[in-house]
Specification:
The complex is a heterodimer. By secondary structure, chain A is α/β, with parallel strands linked by helices. Helices cover 36% and strands 27% of the residues of chain A. Chain A is elongated, with a radius of gyration of 24 Å. Chain B has one domain. Classes of the chains: A alpha/beta, B mainly alpha. Chain A binds chain B through residues 48, 51-55, 69-74, 76, 78, 80-82, 84-89, 93, 96-98, 100-103, 142, and chain B through 2-4, 6-7, 10-11, 14, 16, 102, 106-116, 118, 275-277.
């Protein structure tokens, strides 16, 4: 798949401190890229660099395979930090102002996006009287004007109730699945992110510490038995010859991860011991995105 | 750029403060003209030996430079003297401050900048929109003064070229005013700060060139330096009487163009260099 966004060593300094430090990130066409990080990790700053709201001090970026940044940014819909709307205008007026900015001749494009986000019945209600969920949806509607190929959404489900979260999730899945829009999405609600993202990037203190696909995450977070033994080579032979399984891998520090016999750890333990392998520890392991994120951050105490 | 202007004007026409400030301007201009008629009527009641000195300037938009027209008040006189007060630049300052800083405070400037428009074109589009708003306010104020004055005292007579030059010069100087206000608003980025500073610049900042002049005169031990002559807002009030003084017109033109250029340069320079939050 061609790359929609590729950054190379992107760096932004504030007062000598790197808010974004040498970030090389890759978003492929069709991805829903979950961008994960603690508060102040550099997610928003990175998105501001990509959208041109801030200038990088070092590094480079390419949009849509090397198109000029100005042209590329015209193909992006973005919502950074919060929906940027005129509170004294109605939903329609806000979108009308944006339609004119983009030079879209079709006036019905405003109605189309209002329908997409289910905000057609707000009438003359000014945006300042909207609920947070309605503002978020209007913000996304604004992003959708002009049929963007790439959406950059910073915490779009922040502060929403469960119904609102589901609405946004369904909307993003529809946009990605039916309209083929690539999405770069940050969120603190990792459980929600895990439901829609196809790729992930973890940023910590401005540094992109990991970048992986959903499949890779499943592999890394797969449920398993973690077995620490005195002789890994011998233990591997026992697993293959006696237990007839090759579903394991070997980690450093004399540890094996066994992806079979998950409900039968006793049998595994007995077999290994009977074949001359000393088992120091044997315990079930495996985690979800949240657990993996916490692990990458260095444990719950640091996240 | 056209798209930007299209959007900026859409927003301007939906900005309530623009209509409120314009209405206040027109109402106070009409009241000011009426106040001169009231003063005339009072003057007739006061015995000549009691009446001393010039007619005081009670009108918000009027200045004592109108005294030259005493006994010859007319619509054209009202038009010229309407430029004598600070109300128009103050209200332009408020409208511009609210118009420019709204995009910063609502975060909507991000929507524009993120679409790849250059910072300079964003600044220029705000400047052009502000200039149109300011010119409309000026013309409405002048029209209100002319109509009210004509109803009270008749149209009056003056050299058409002089009237045209006066209007042209006032438009030029108020465009410079818009340039100053836009630059201040882009620099401060907050509604309260920009409104306050814009009002102060029109009302009190003339003290700065006056103080510098006084200091220089003290150093030179002569009274020959008067920097306030080159202060934009002093020039606006100076060109509020007919017939026009040719030297003043030339000086006002230079001051207006220089002020506009300097403030616009610094406004664009600062905006281009700073990140958008």
């Amino acid at each position: 798949m061609p790359l929609i966004l590729e950054t190379s060593g992107l760096t932004k300094l504030y007062g000598g401190r790197a808010a974004v430090n040498q970030v090389s990130l890759h978003v492929k066409e069709g991805d829903i890229y979950g961008f994960i990080g603690k508060n102040g990790a550099g997610k928003t700053t990175f998105m501001r660099l990509v959208t041109g709201l801030a200038r990088p001090d070092k590094g480079s970026m390419a949009l849509f395979g090397g198109q000029s940044l100005t042209e590329g940014r015209r193909r992006i819909g973005s919502m950074i930090e919060y929906p940027s709307l005129y509170p004294n205008m109605t939903a329609r007026e806000n979108l009308e102002a944006h339609r004119r900015l983009l030079g879209i001749p079709e006036k019905n494009s405003v109605d189309e996006v209002l329908q997409t986000v289910h905000l057609t019945d707000t009438g003359n209600k000014e945006v300042k009287h909207f609920s947070l969920g309605m503002r978020q949806r209007l913000g996304i509607a604004q992003c959708l004007l002009g049929h963007p190929d790439f959406l950059i959404l910073d915490e779009p489900i922040n502060g929403l109730d469960p119904t609102g979260i589901k609405e946004i999730r369904d909307l993003l899945l529809t946009l990605n699945g039916e309209k083929g829009i690539t999405i770069l999405l940050s969120s603190h609600i990792l459980g929600e992110l895990a439901k829609i993202a196809t790729c992930y990037g973890i940023i910590n203190q401005g540094v992109l510490v990991d970048e992986f696909s959903k499949d890779e995450l499943q592999t890394r977070c797969r449920r398993c038995l973690r077995i620490q033994v005195d002789d890994v080579k011998k233990a591997a032979q026992v697993l293959e010859s006696v237990l007839k399984t090759d579903q394991f891998d070997v980690l450093p520090d004399q540890t094996l991860r066994l992806f079979a016999y998950l409900e039968d750890s006793g049998k595994v333990n007995t077999t290994l011991v009977q074949n001359g392998v000393t088992v120091m520890t044997i315990a079930p392991a495996g985690q979800d995105l949240e657990g993996y994120f916490m692990q990458r951050m260095g444990g719950y105490g640091n996240a | 750029m056209l798209n930007l202007l299209h959007t900026e004007f859409y927003k301007l026409w939906r900005q309530k403060s623009f209509y409120i400030c314009t209405l206040v301007l027109v109402v106070f201009t009409v009241l000011s003209v009426f106040s001169y008629e009231l003063l005339n009527m009072m003057a007739e009641l006061i015995p000549p030996e009691v009446a001393q000195g010039d007619i005081p300037s009670y009108g918000v938009g009027m200045s004592t430079s109108a005294i030259g027209f005493e006994g010859d008040m007319s619509g054209l006189w009202a038009l010229a003297t309407s430029f004598g007060g600070n109300l128009l630049p103050v209200l332009i300052g408020i409208v511009i401050a609210l118009f420019v800083t709204a995009d910063f405070s609502h975060g909507t400037l991000k929507n524009i900048a993120a679409k790849g428009f250059s910072r300079t074109s964003i600044y220029v589009s705000k400047l052009i929109t502000g200039a149109v708003a300011g010119t409309l306010m000026l013309l409405l104020m002048a029209g209100a003064a002319l109509v009210t004055g004509t109803i009270l005292w008749g149209f009056g007579t003056a050299d058409a070229a002089d009237v045209f030059t006066l209007l042209l010069m006032q438009v030029l100087m108020h465009l410079a005013t818009v340039g100053v206000m836009v630059a201040i608003s882009f620099l401060l980025r907050s509604i309260g700060g920009a409104v306050a500073v814009n009002i102060c610049v029109v009302s009190f900042a003339v003290l700065i060139p006056q103080l510098i002049s006084a200091f220089l005169n003290y150093l030179l031990k002569e009274d020959r330096v008067d920097l306030s002559k080159y202060w934009l807002f002093s020039n606006i009030t100076e060109l509020s009487a007919l017939p026009l003084n040719g030297d003043a017109v030339l000086r006002c033109s230079i001051v207006a163009v220089a002020t506009f250029a300097v403030f616009t340069f610094f406004g664009v320079y600062s905006f281009v260099r700073r990140d958008i939050k």
